[in-house]
Design goal:
Elements lengths: L3 H5 L9 H32 L2 E2 L8 E2 L3 H8 L2 H31 L6 H9 L6 H11 L6 H8 L12 H29 L3 H9 L4 H29 L3 H6 L12 H11 L3 H30 L1
Helix pairs in contact: 2-13, 4-8, 4-10, 6-8, 8-10, 10-13, 12-13
Amino acid sequence: MPSVNEHVLPRAGGRRPWKSYALFLAIVGPNLALLAVFTYRPLIENIRMSFYDWNISSPGSTFIGFANYREWFTREDTATIVVNTVVFTVVAVAGSMALGLVLALLLDRALKGRNLVRSVVFAPFVLSGAAVGIAFQFVFDPNFGLINDLMHRLGLGSAPDFYQQPHWALFMITVTYVWKNLGYAFVIYLAALQGKRADLDEAAAVDGASGWTHFRKVLLPQLRPTTFFLSITVLLNSLQVFDIINVMTRGGPLGNGTTTMVYQVYEETFRNFRAGYGATVATIMFLILLVVTVAQVRLMDRGAR
């Protein structure tokens, strides 16, 4: 006589009931269909378009093979644009995560008015990037801006001309981006801190660990999954910044002073009407992101062992 378990569980090596597959398709199918239509199809179409010379206003296109890729790797402005992208991304990711962690540590304690402060820190993240860019134009204005006024009050002279010097312009948009998106890293780290293990903190206190030792040996290992998650999401968000750059500098000064790869996609596609070349830059960005993400996942796996 068969046991109860044999009626409930499928036999080893047996096939799953068709109802299980139907349920799986009913749950996962719509999501897969949306991904295929709105993510993978545009990605494949973008890669295909990168092999064509196409004026976006023209109904026809000409197949040119790898000519767009050869042009991108040999153009004089490519090095400047790549450096701008790397500098902006590294500083934005490191700055957002480091400051977000510091603020989360400061506000993860019983302080008067901490909920109000938490709201103030997170509020810029929900604001429009274009609105933030317009506001910070007045902050960095070399004649009437807030920074210039503060420097005069402190007897430090005039502020740099952020709109005429490429390195100061890049600094300007990076600071603006970090200020706007700081709240995202702050909230994620704060949630992670509130879920940390209290027994490990108590054990460290009993052992007499210093504040730095506790932070490095006890807290940071618990935050490793959160840091990994933030490193990917903040990286992806920073590489897609367009609105702040477009509002504040339009890719300048001096031509490409603050032009990043994503802004180059916009310029080539909608200003120079070279959709094929813009698709080439977008495809190169995708490949770079793919490599970086895979490397991050492998580093995370090694750290977890």
